[in-house]
Amino acid sequence: MGGDFHASDLTRRSFVASSAGLVASAAAGPTLAQAAGGMRRVIIDTDPGVDDAFALLLAMRSPELKIEGITPVAGNVPLALTLPNALRMVEIAGRSDIPVAAGADKPLERRLVTATYAHGENGLGGAIFPVPKLKPIADPASDFIRRIVRKYPGEVTLITLGPQTNVATAIASDPGLAKLVKGVVMMGGSLSGGNVTPAAEFNIYVDPEAARIVFQSGIPLTMVGLDVTRKTALTAAHLERLQAAGTPVAKAAAQIASNTINQNRAQGYLKGPNMHDPLAMAAFLDPSLLTWKDYYVDIETKGELTAGETVGYSPIQGDQPRRADMVREAAERMAIRGSAPSLGGATISPVLRDKYVPNTRVAMDVDSARFFELLIGRLAGKA
C-alpha cells in the first residue's frame, strides 16, 4: 500500500521554501497551525490513553478549534476501550456536539501491541468513570475522515495522537485525499531513541506501515516526538491545581493524573507521567512553545530490531555543520540513502531519493513551563 505514495512527489515550491529556511526554521513554529482568523477545523485521531485523555480535554477547552470529529484507534489499549474512553471525555467536557467515529481495531499488517503497562488495563490509569451514554456515529473513522476532508478541502488539520492506521487507511482508499488535507500534527516518533524499543516510539512502532504511508503522502507534517515530550513530566503541583479547580473537566483530569502518578511511583519512576499527547495538541494551538527544524523523515519497516524507527535526514546535522550560506547548496546535492545493497542483490540502488526534500517539521525543544501553563490553565479554568 505504501508504494503508491512518494515523498519525491512533494512540490518543488515546498523544496525551495523548506531548504532556504532550514536555519531560520529552528526558531519558528509551523505555519499550518497559525490561524488566519476564526476557528481552525481539526479531526483528532487518538487512542485514549492517559495523556490522550488530557489532550482531548485540552482540545475541547480550546475555543480556537472547530473539532469536526474524534476518531479512536487501537493503540494504547484495544479499540474496545479507546472508543468508550473517547466518548467519556466528550461527555465530561459537555461536548456532545462532537461526533465520534470508531476506527481500526488492529494495525494494517501486524498484530496489535498495547501499552497497558503505562496506561492501566482500562487505558485511564485505573480511574473509573461511568459507562458513556453517547454512541459513536455509524461511519467508520477512515470514511469519516475522507468525508470531512472533502467537505472542507484545504481546511482540515488531522491531529494524530496514536498509531496512524485510520489516517493511512483513508489516504490509501482515496488517492486524491492527501492533497486536500491542510496538515498532520502528530504525537509520534523520535530522533533521539525510542520508548518501546531503543529505536522506536510507541505510536510508530505499533503500525510502522501506516506511518510510512502518512510520511510519504506529501501532506505537510509536524512531528512532536519523544525529543520534546520527555520534557513534560506532570507533577504533584499540577495535580493540586487541578484538584482545587472543582470543575468536571478538572476533576476528571485530576482523577486520571492521581492514579497515573501513583502507578508511576509504584513502578519506581522518579517523575512523570509525561504529557506526550497534550504537547502535540499545544503545539498546534501555540507553535511558539517549541523550536523546530526541517527534516526528511522516513519510517523503518523491515528491521528486526528497528521497525518503527523514525529516521531523520538533514544537510545541517552531524558533527560538521556548514555555513548558513552553503546550506541550500548542500541540500540540493544531498541524496537520501538507505542501506548499501547486499552481495546477493547488488542491482538494488541504495539511493532512495535523488534529492533532499524536507517532508516534516520536527519539534526539537520545548518551553515546558509555558506548556504547562497552557495545559493546566485551560483544564482548571472555569467551565
Radius of gyration, in Å, reads: 20 Å
Helix content: 25-40%
**Mind telling me which CATH architecture this is?**
Alpha-Beta Complex
CATH topology: Inosine-uridine Nucleoside N-ribohydrolase, Chain A
Q: Specify the CATH class.
A: Alpha Beta
Could you name the ranges where pLDDT drops below 50 across 5 or more consecutive residues?
1-36
Q: Biggest sheet, strands in spatial order? A: 2-1-3-4-5-10-6-7
Number of helices: 14
Mean pLDDT: 88
- Overall geometry comes to globular
Strand content: 5-15%
How many discrete structural domains?
1
Distance between the ends = 45 Å
SSE order and pairing:
Elements: H1 12-20, E1 40-46, H2 50-60, E2 65-72, H3 79-92, H4 116-119, H5 141-151, E3 156-160, H6 165-173, E4 183-187, H7 202-206, H8 208-215, E5 221-224, H9 226-229, H10 236-245, H11 248-266, H12 276-285, E6 290-299, E7 310-313, H13 327-333, E8 336-337, E9 351-353, E10 360-366, H14 368-379
Parallel strand pairs: 1-2, 1-3, 3-4, 4-5, 5-10
Antiparallel strand pairs: 6-7, 6-10, 8-9
Helix pairs in contact: 2-3, 2-11, 2-12, 5-6, 6-8, 10-11
Properties at a glance:
single chain, 383 residues, alpha/beta, Inosine-uridine Nucleoside N-ribohydrolase, Chain A, eight-stranded mixed sheet, two-stranded antiparallel sheet, 35% helix, globular, disordered N terminus
